[in-house]
Specification:
Elements lengths: L4 H13 L3 E3 L5 E2 L5 E2 L1 E3 L8 H19 L4 E5 L2 H13 L3 E4 L12 E2 L7 E5 L2 E2 L3 H12 L3 E10 L3 H9 L4 E6 H10 L5 H13 L4
Parallel strand pairs: 5-6, 5-8, 8-10, 9-10, 10-11
Antiparallel strand pairs: 1-4, 2-3, 6-7
Length: 211
Amino acid sequence: MILNNEKALKVAEFLLQIKAVKLEPNNPFTWASGWKSPIYCDNRVTLSFPNIRTFIRQGYAESIVEKFGKPDIIAGVATGGIAQGALVAQELGVPFIYVRSSAKEHGMGNQIEGFYEEGKKVVVIEDLISTGGSSIKAIEALKSAGLDVKGLVAIFTYGFEQAKINFENAECPFITLTSYDILIEQALKQDFITVNDLDSLREWKESVRPY
């Protein structure tokens, strides 16, 4: 779900401008899962550009308040959501915690790092959503710890149907600042791709089954 289409277009423009997103329809990337993809997204690059970092931080904060109300805590998903989440928590003036992919095997054995109390309202921060698998694990860990997870916000989603199903099953609404569909339209406007590329990029999203 996108709350503001004008801002979604701007976020897409920024991601393309700084090459946080790369589109290679004729020379696909191989993801860690082995999937062949014409798009590669690394939203950590946004942290290196103060004006873009600020725009995204404010976009996160505004979307959270509009959709979920002001939470008691912001929780980042390791690793991509940690830096973004800390920035958002600072913007909102609330505590920050983060969730590991699994509990530590040493020390306190924590999966959730930081101070929190049961019953507190939490909004989760991710950098991007593909199938939502890592996000759901974090949400489940927070719920198991007694926290009230109101929803999740990410910068970008590929728009895969499986992500929608996974979040529905987890009973956790999610929103993103921009999306694959918006980004490739913006890429065409900015001459990053051609009309023929646009068609193949759309076909890839419809044909891929990353699950």
